[in-house]
Amino acid sequence: MQYLEINDEGVAVRGVYDLVEGDTLPANWKPITPDSREGFGYIWSEESQTWSAPLVSIEDLRDQRDALISATDWWAVQDRVMTTEQLDYRAALRDITEDYTPVEEPTWPSHPAETN
């Protein structure tokens, strides 16, 4: 069996380890299955003895949001007029951090159709 090392908050911070026969299992090593997706950032639940997907931090959310806004900066060039949908999309991206709640996968606004 293989293991991930968790920190005090139950977040996987190191691994993957194999326990050598005769060694004692450290308390901060938690089991993973050989073909699993568990890895850094996954969260261990002592209660259910299972892993859950990592939550997106506010910093990661901002980074992803900033990249999406940057990808649409060309819409705002001086000789171009943005559509209402494009304006709304960029506003929704800017506002996504206002009511931040940690989630496994953020719900992003729908990208408007490209127009020239």
What does this structure look like?
The chain has 116 residues and is an alpha+beta fold. The protein has 2 domains: 2-52, no CATH class; 55-116, no CATH class. It contains 2 helices and 5 strands. The protein has helices spanning 58-70, 84-95; strands at 2-6, 12-18, 29-32, 43-45, 50-52. Strands 2-1-3 form a 3-stranded antiparallel β-sheet, with no helix packed on it. It starts with a strand and ends in a 21-residue tail after the last helix. The model has no long low-confidence stretch (mean pLDDT 85).
Summed up:
The protein has helices spanning 58-70, 84-95, and strands at 2-6, 12-18, 29-32, 43-45, 50-52. The protein has 116 residues and is an alpha+beta fold.
Number of helices: 2
Radius of gyration over C-alpha positions, nearest whole angstrom: 21 Å
Strand order of the largest sheet: 2-1-3
Report the major sheet. 3 strands, antiparallel
Q: Encode the helix/strand succession as letters.
A: EEEEEHH
User: What would the principal axes of the Cα set say about the shape?
Assistant: elongated
The helix fraction, in percent, is: 10-25%
Number of DSSP strands? 5
Number of domains: 2
Give the end-to-end Cα distance, rounded to a whole number of Å.
56 Å
Low-confidence stretches: none
Strand portion: 15-25%
- Decide which structural class fits the backbone: alpha+beta
Overall pLDDT score? 85
